[in-house]
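Entry type: protein chain
Record version: 2
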Amino acid sequence: MNHIKTLSTTKLRENISDFIDIVATSGKSIVLGRRNIPEAVLIPFPNLWNGKLTEITNINAYSRSFDFLSDEPEIYSIKDIKHKYA
């Protein structure tokens, strides 16, 4: 299992503006925690927002937080999808 590099809450408090700028400009997420135990994630706010969807769905669909998945192999085909979502 890969170890996730975790930013301490102390370091975050000392430099919060810098870390917000890094997330906003780079589009990368930062894992936050205490004693090197991940507890939360600072993610970029979505560029788009659909009022018909929940907050978490908007974040998942429209933020760049899951861009890393584009490098992962497809494990499902169109035939695997039984319900078409609009």
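Comment: The beta strands are 7-8, 30-34, 37-42.
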